[in-house]
Amino acid sequence: MSTSKTKNAVQASAKHNAEDFLRMYRQMVRIRTFEDNANQLYLSAKMPGLTHMYSGEEAVAVGICEALKVTDKITSTHRGHGHCVAKGAEFKEMFCELLGKEEGYCRGKGGSMHIADQSNGNLGANAIVGGSMGIATGAAFTAKLLGKDDVTVCFFGDGATAQGLMYEVMNMAALWSLPIIYACENNGYSEYTKTAEIAAGSITGRAEAFGIEAHTVDGQDVLAVNSLTEQLVERCRKGEGPFFIELMTYRYHGHHVGDINREYYRSKDEEKDWRDNKDPITKFARHLTREGIATEEELKAMQAEIKADATAAVEYALKAKYPDAVEVDMHVYAA
Ligand SMILES: Cc1ncc(C[n+]2csc(CCOP(=O)(O)OP(=O)(O)O)c2C)c(N)n1
Asked: 121: Cβ–Cβ under 8 A, 6 or more apart, which residues?
């Protein structure tokens, strides 16, 4: 199997109209705005637990989820807000979930790291690194058994490639030609350690060992991610799966919201370089204005509208009701 290197964004342009482009931009800004608000909720001690910011990685979730139907499934990670928004979730129910409120997607019992949104095919975030790989592969197996053309995307980080489960499920997926895409978000770090110090050899080589076609793509380029994903999703629907994508990206914040002093494992210059020169939203905004799809003023107005939506959703969630105590063992399954 060959590994195709970073795809060219131009490929995507022919397939999409201005409305599609603006929706992708909107979704990326919605993720960034959601995260800015979640961070503030944590810093002001209004949110229980802790959370992991997706800021910087928006083009990955949006590029992929824009290639999916509502009935296609995704599984997510501990850094899962971006996947949830990109698959169609609403701010109000998401903030309610983060704050443990009854109107949250899981009636406040999931929180940041276990949020799920079945209505949009999001089977859930998972605090166990690599933990969703079995769920995703099972979902793809289900679609195949039921004769549905649904595709599943399994999101995970580079650190999760150290989990044995990944090799068990990739083996099954390859043997049974399952309609699944394993999407490895390589943001360069696993907690406080550089990926290069913990992962020997190549990431895509791990999938190729099972005969799975693997690709590497620039995860800061939403059109490149979307174009590649659309092609692989179409091929999955025809029974040509599974596939593996390594998406090269970067998280702007610390591993979690409390990871503030990061200089012992990465430099401020490195962070500044990614923010200033490789930001997926700025990059795409430039494309939109250059191509005459939107003016800078229109994009600013969209940002302001999203910011206002988020503020209203946070205010709503802060005042919303907690679930009744009698619900404590509802929706809990024990084997
Ligand atoms: C099975 C398991 N081992 C360890 C942890 C602790 N842990 C939480 S996040 C993380 C690093 C994950 O790195 P990566 O998969 O690259 O995702 P990223 O945080 O970079 O998005 C670790 C080791 C865990 N949650 N689950």
From this structure: 68, 69, 70, 71, 72, 73, 74, 87, 88, 150
